[in-house]
Here is the input.
Amino acid sequence: MKKSWLNHKTIVITGASSGIGQELSRIFIEKHNCKIIGVGRNQQKMEEFKTSLSAKNVNFEYRLFDVSSEENWKNFTNEFAKQKVDIIINNAGMLPPFASVEKLSTILSKDNFIGQEFQKVMDTNFMSVVYGTHYMMPIIEKSETPAIINVASSAGLCALPGTSLYSASKAAVKNFTEALSCEKKYYVGLVCPGFTKTNIFRNQTHSSKNKLIDFISTDLTKMANKIYKKIKRKKKRVVVGFDAKMMDKFYRIFPKASLKLFSSVLKKANIELFKDVFSE
Here is the structure.
């Protein structure tokens, strides 16, 4: 094992039952013999992942709770208050349907108040990061190498049509993390992955019209490895994926023109994912 600040660290990773969170867990265990405390809600997936680690399954344990609940975070940190934790990676998130603001309100509200449904997304994507950071900070700051890493999205860098709620929640994560990074002397990282082939799209409609999305999406293992390499180097701003880098650069240089360009491309591409976005 090569010398690294990550070696033998204890890391809390939310959203560890699948996707980027699970792949990062595997990498940290295999490459640095880290102890991972995974947080999620799907026990079956957690057990399957633990089994897949074979002899190193002792390096992985998990807790099942909803990260959008502040009370759950209080209980979690009470358990680990006197234990060693070096790093937290706030990775959990949810993706609401791709739709215009008007149609999204109709899709989400159903028999509930629309505010409650919007709040659910904000609580899961943003407030979970706030809670995780706030309650874990006193614990990880006891470490010689504390670190807080928050996973946002390319949607937090540049909003796309049909992603109003998701983009708002991820932009909040981005700004929260960047402000925190200015306040702390230790490593605070922001990760903004682009489209990734994960289960976060399981609630979205898939068809042959999604070829463009498939083309620009990054393979999950490849995405996790790229993120890991940036974390290993303590990069404060991690933008991964061709689409994410393009959105980031274009928006910073041509903010108005880039929004029009991206909207035009998505509309003309006739992508099934965005069928509820553009008016006829």
